[in-house]
Amino acid sequence: MSAGRPGSGRPTVVVTRRLPGPVEEQAAREFDARLNADDHPFSATELADALRTADALLPTVTDRLTAQVLGAEPLKARIIANYGVGFNHIDTGAAKARGLVVTNTPDVLTDDTADDAMLLMLMVARRAGEGERQVRAGAWTGWGPTHMLGTRVSGKTLGLIGLGRIGRAVAHRARHGFGMRVIFHDPYPPAPAVVAELGAEPRASVDEVLREADFVSLHSPATPETRHLMDARRLGLMKRGAFLINNARGDIVDEAALVAALKRGTIAGAGLDVFEREPAVSPELLQMEHVVLLPHLGSATHESRVAMGLRALDNLKTFFAGAPPRDRVA
Q1: Are 250 and 277 in contact (CB under 8 A)?
Q2: pLDDT grade, residue 7 (50/70/90)?
Q3: Largest CA distance in the chain
Q4: What is the mean pLDDT of residues 86-114?
Q5: pLDDT tens, position by position, 194-252
Q6: Which of 6, 11, 78, 200 is the most buried (most CB within 10 A)?
Q7: pLDDT, tens only, 132-148
């Protein structure tokens, strides 16, 4: 980890992973930035040391900021500026108890994450991953009328679990790009005018969405209440020809129950960009052709990853200027 310059008078910020060049350059200009030159994942000890020695921590989803880590003594850090919109890897209750401000980076990754959800939907329905593997393996013998038939996406019913920023962006793409009927459940839905503009139809429960949808796309935050939201019972409510899409958070889905449902043919397939114990993936999923597996690529564009970093730095600048950061979550 490269050290900041001692005695600079600027707040010291520990950045836990390599970030895009423009972000690290700005961090070095504006703060006493300690950068992670070799991009190694921080251990719990390193995270605790950062909290003891720096004014701020800029972590990512790979950093498990548990109550034990946040209990570091003596605590010097005053703010955790998370790089990413999800913050379930941070024990926000413990952070609040220690007087730590926590921020995230919403908005800037919405479009790319919505594109990723549509990508998963198209890939699993049209068997794109399976087809590419066949071509690369030299196993394709040519076009045939019944070769690798998939499922049409256009005009089908998309069920959204969650209609926040990303859910709304997916709804817009699905309805206007693919002529899909969009239904949704959200315990905290957007204003009726927003729902009407999207042409989305509310449902009173998750279960109602699951029974009706041809594609179910998850866009809920990871909270204790949403852990294993998609369990064996709920997977059993889906149509046998339906597909499950998840690029929200891995633990929203009970991965073992999903494996069992896919084996039994309870649902037709799944497109996953996140996993319950990532980077570990259930070995059975790796063997299934009717599952698309991506390595957490939701926000993985140059544009989003730079914007996420700049947003985190903006939260830090605002905080150290004595004003409330706009993306405070705890």
Answers
A1: yes
A2: very low
A3: 72
A4: 97
A5: 999 999 999 999 999 999 999 999 999 999 999 999 999 999 999 999 999 999 999 99
A6: 200
A7: 999 999 999 999 999 99
The single residue of 18, 211, 296, 328 carrying the catalytic annotation is 296
Catalytic pick among 249, 255, 276, 311: 249
Q: Is 278 a catalytic residue?
A: yes
Total count of domains within the chain? 2
CA distance 293 to 39: 24
Question: Does the annotation count 255 as an active-site position?
Answer: no
Q: From the candidates 30, 46, 278, 284, which is the catalytic residue?
A: 278
Same domain, 193 and 52: no
- Residues 59-82 as b/e (b if ≥16 CB within 10 A, e otherwise) read bbbebbbeeebbebeeeebbbbbb
Look at phi and psi of residue 60 and say left if phi exceeds 0, alpha if psi is from -120 to 50, else beta. beta
CATH number, domain of 203, equals 3.40.50.720
Q: What are the tens digits of pLDDT across the range 266-323?
A: 999 999 999 999 999 999 999 999 999 999 999 999 999 999 999 999 999 999 999 9
Q: pTM of the entire structure?
A: 0.93
> 33 is in which domain, residue-wise?
12-108+302-320
329 falls within a domain: no
For this structure, is 249 an active site residue? yes
Does 170 lie in the same domain as 92?
no
Lookup result for tokens 């998309």:
158
99 and 75 inside one domain: yes
